[in-house]
Amino acid sequence: MNFTFRRKRISGILTVLPAREQSFVDDMKNFNFPEARSLKLKEVMGYDKHRIVEPSVCVSDLVVFALKHLFEKELLLPDEFDALILVTQSPDYFMPPTSNVIQGRLNLKKDLFCVDINQGCAGFVIGLIQAFLLLEQESIRKVLVVNADVLSRKTSPKDRNSYPLIGDGASITVVERDTVDSVIHANLKMDGTRNNVLMIPAGGFRRPSSPETACLEDVGDNNLRAKDHLHMDGSAVFNFVQVEVPALIADLLQHTGSSIEQVDYFFCHQPNRFMLQKLADKMRIPHAKMPSNVVENFGNSSGVTIPTAIAFNLGDRLIQEKFKVCFAGFGVGLTWGAMLLDLGRVNFNSLIDYA
Predict the structure, then answer these.
(1) Cβ neighbours, 10 Å, residue 253
(2) Structural domains for the chain
(3) pLDDT tens for residues 255-305?
(4) Which of these, 252, 254, 210, 250, lies nearest to 339 by C-alpha position?
(5) pLDDT at position 161
(6) What are the distances in angstroms from CA 6 to CA 23, 132, 321, 327?
(7) Strand 348-354 vs strand 8-18: parallel, antiparallel, or unpaired?
(8) 288 burial class (0-12, 13-18, 19+ CB within 10 angstroms)?
(9) pLDDT tier at 76 (50, 70, 90 boundaries)?
(10) DSSP alpha helix (H) spans, the chain
């Protein structure tokens, strides 16, 4: 599905990551696996350290902290945005929506469109698409796209296939109308027939949590996890990314009459360094154009990885300069989407710690 938006822009990005940092060497102590092989995994996949929340921290805590920071710095006023889109797979509750919880905790205006979207790895692109659609309404002047997840709380520390790469975090992306005739293109695809490749099998109404679903099981090669934990078929995800994502980005570039050479940066969701570098090689994109340094420094925080990559790799440059960028998100669902736009001259682009 193709989308075209005119006169829309991103005017600010703030990423909030937990101050608590855990190293892969610390993670190794929980693995029933030879140390030498664990260190080889660290080298190949690009694991080093990741940011994870304390056990009691929820999505709304990260988001409220981020918004208070913007309000205190007067980078955003509480009454100047008309919609809050929260994209998360780890809500505070089944009900009410966590976006409403955030609205209530900050005592935001009642004339505010709040909505939760249950998406993950492609959630940044999906959130932006929804925001641009809302900006077609005259009554909506500015939209906050909020990506946030605390999936470390649903990942087994004894599962070396998932736990070392998982990180937590939140991002606030401010979207508004542009004063120039800018054009943004996007495309999006979904394949629910492969929904079991990335999932948490228990905890919903289909299979409620119970003492049985909380029991750790050896799922192969001495990896231990429960049905309540995140399950990822790593080989299936890798093959999905290598097959589907290059075609998606190629289609977007062809549709817009653009080339890889004309794009300054490809900011992709970051499952791990190995997967992104293989993706870049397959598409013949220089590694410098597709940063892959988020997981080794912060962990894979699902839809927050793209804003994290932007803040970490561009920082204040994005305030003064403008770049042609391609966003690409891919994963749980299975869902994959890409977006091509001019990004820059924003009001802020920063990364702060939640403590």
Answers:
(1) 19
(2) 1-355 (3.40.47.10)
(3) 999 999 999 999 999 999 999 999 999 999 999 999 999 999 999 999 999
(4) 252
(5) 87
(6) 44, 9, 21, 17
(7) parallel
(8) exposed
(9) very high
(10) 24-28, 35-45, 59-72, 98-105, 123-134, 234-256, 273-283, 294-297, 305-314, 317-320
| Residues near 106 by beta carbon (within 8 Å), at least 6 away in sequence | 64, 67, 68, 78
Cα(343)–Cα(319) distance, integer angstroms? 10
Strand segments, DSSP code E, in the chain are: 2-6, 8-18, 21-23, 49-51, 83-87, 113-117, 142-149, 169-177, 183-190, 198-199, 217-218, 224-225, 231-232, 265-268, 322-331, 335-344, 348-354
Determine the Cα–Cα distance for residues 341 and 224; give it in Å rounded to an integer: 42
d(CA 79, CA 71): 10
Token pair listed for 269: 């969701």
Tens of pLDDT along 163-221?
A: 999 999 999 999 999 999 999 999 999 999 999 999 999 999 999 999 999 999 998 87
Spatial contact of 226 and 217, defined as CB atoms under 8 Å apart: yes
What is the pTM for the complete model shown?
A: 0.96
